[in-house]
Amino acid sequence: MNVVERSLFPRVEPGRIVSLILWPISIMMIFQRSVILGVNGHRTDDFTPVYNAALAFLNRMPVYNENYSTVDPHYLYPPSGTLLMAPLAVIDPQTSRWIFIGVSVAVLILCAYLLTRMFGFRYDSWVFPALLFFFFSTETVAHTLIFTNFNGFVLLGLLAFMMLMLGRHDLWAGVFIGLTLAVKPVLAPVLLLVLLNRQWKILITAVGIPVVLNALAWPISADPMDFIRRTVPYLGESRDYYNSSITGNALYFGIDSWLSWLLRIAFAAMAVFSLWFLYKYYRRTDELLWLATSTGILLCTTFLVGSLGQGYYSMLLFPLLMTVFLPGSTMRNWPAWLGVYGCMTFDVFASNKWEPFGRYLEYNKVPLGWSLLMIAVFCVLLFRYLDLRAVNKAAPTPPAHQSDPAATAA
């Protein structure tokens, strides 16, 4: 190529082209989701109950005195979470909410960066803007900002925990997951992986931090025992609104309890097999793949079979989705990504023409998405298990004199 042709047709690397396309789109999506949709808010408001509880806590007034029979968002954090949320009420509610949205956006951008680095990509690669584009196109991130809740910080705690656990910085790994557990225990199932990997030191800070924060908050709370008497029983109940778990879905659509239990047992069994297979065959060969996939399976199973699973919890599955870049990933198939679409899409399926059908799709897209994702991951691992069995059966058994060196020597 001569000088004229190089001037007319400059060469640009494909990755650079992707970055040039995605950076401006991603930045505008971040602006729209936060400054426009986030500030606009929604009838579902997760921030106001937290702000009111923090204000009551600072003024030594009762916190756990809500009417749980209503469908309004309720304050459900333990006293340790109230202590951590207390600084929100130092300023007026509108300014506090706007600051919370801004910090949440910064946290989500940091999460995209950490995922990029954790899976071996540079910050200036096309993967970083692609992750930002994907993050802010999902329902889980959009509603986290619009409803203004704590989920972005939970994702940050999860990613920091995973990176520090892989780096064998055990006490610091426990600090980050412990801070999230002090506010909401959604990541508690992940501690099973700590036990399986025998990194016991993580438990010191992971369990110790919520215990210490609760010990500090308990004597200065006006009604800490009401959290035990009133809030904890409510947390154990399945509700029929804003609940995408199997039990919540069954209550809303009037499904018999036996079918609900059958589905819960089936998904729990799939999770047990998947975790066993990953532990046996992947933990020592690719620890990142093992940790990210096992974390996704544990959390997705919890969302499905637990008493409460809300759609915006799906952002905690981002590490599982990123394994698509790793050899051996369970995400390299189209049914898994159809499941991802179901549980993360910002599309609305409510239909004026086909109202019942549209309502069914809208209310079931998240549970169906989680279910399909779990089934796809399980089937991939099951087929690999069957392939291994077939290979082992087909392998010829060596004669006794070849398999026993001592006999051969004799």
TrEMBL record:
Molecular function terms from GO: glycosyltransferase activity
Keyword field: Cell membrane, Glycosyltransferase, Membrane, Transferase, Transmembrane, Transmembrane helix
Enzyme Commission number: 2.4.-.-
Matches recorded under InterPro entries: GT87
Membrane topology recorded in Swiss-Prot or TrEMBL: Multi-pass membrane protein
Protein localization: Cell membrane
Residue stretches spanning the membrane: 20-39, 98-115, 121-138, 145-165, 171-195, 202-220, 258-279, 288-306, 366-386
The keyword Membrane is assigned to this record: yes
Principal location class: membrane
Leader sequence segment: none
Family the UniProt entry places it in: Belongs to the glycosyltransferase 87 family.
Name assigned to this protein: Glycosyltransferase family 87 protein
